[in-house]
């Protein structure tokens, strides 16, 4: 079993419900259990600002799936939620699931990079991740709590 962290984001439709549904879908994966989930965060868009704000969260799971199997499952969950990957980057989406961390693994393969390559620059991922694992070491980047201190979190707010 491996502890992994999955980032969840949505800015189309009922985003809070979409994020909650993604947590349920993760809990339903074979050989996987949700350990805990962060609060939801309202965050400004990243990369492209001409879109609605996002709802983001991070889920910690314990899984027997390989990193590649887990990524395939995440893509299936996105598709089931209505996500269409059209090649555009950082645009609006009904659901975005990112494999942020997979144990202490460093993976660099076509279609899969772990830790997530932009994790250390994104407050919308680091804030909820810090709720779950502030002392977690991100391979090649540092401790989550230290990474949070280095990013601009203006406009991000924890939701009740």
UniProtKB/TrEMBL annotation:
A single GO BP: folic acid biosynthetic process
Keyword annotations: ATP-binding, Folate biosynthesis, Kinase, Nucleotide-binding, Transferase
Family according to the record: Belongs to the HPPK family.
Chain's gene name: folK
Descriptive protein name: 2-amino-4-hydroxy-6-hydroxymethyldihydropteridine pyrophosphokinase
Domain 7,8-dihydro-6-hydroxymethylpterin-pyrophosphokinase: 89-100
Pfam families membership: HPPK
Pathway: Cofactor biosynthesis; tetrahydrofolate biosynthesis; 2-amino-4-hydroxy-6-hydroxymethyl-7,8-dihydropteridine diphosphate from 7,8-dihydroneopterin triphosphate: step 4/4
Domain of life where this protein originates: Bacteria
A molecular function GO annotation: kinase activity
Enzyme Commission number(s) from the entry: 2.7.6.3
Organism: Tahibacter soli
Protein role: Catalyzes the transfer of pyrophosphate from adenosine triphosphate (ATP) to 6-hydroxymethyl-7,8-dihydropterin, an enzymatic step in folate biosynthesis pathway.
């Amino acid at each position: 079993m491996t502890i992994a962290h999955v980032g969840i984001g949505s800015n189309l439709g009922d985003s809070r419900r979409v994020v909650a549904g993604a947590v349920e879908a993760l809990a339903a994966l074979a050989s996987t259990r949700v350990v805990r989930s962060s609060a939801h965060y309202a965050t400004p868009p990243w990369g492209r600002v001409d879109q609605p704000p996002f709802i983001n969260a991070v889920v910690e799971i314990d899984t027997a799936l390989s990193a590649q199997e887990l990524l395939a499952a995440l893509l299936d969950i996105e598709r089931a939620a209505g996500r269409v990957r059209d090649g555009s980057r950082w645009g609006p989406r009904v659901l975005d699931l990112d494999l942020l961390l997979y144990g202490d693994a460093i993976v660099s393969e076509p279609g899969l990079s772990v830790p997530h390559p932009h994790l250390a620059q994104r407050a919308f991922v680091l804030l909820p991740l810090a709720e779950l694992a502030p002392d977690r070491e991100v391979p090649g980047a540092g401790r989550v709590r230290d990474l949070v201190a280095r990013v601009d979190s203006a406009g991000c707010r924890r939701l009740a």
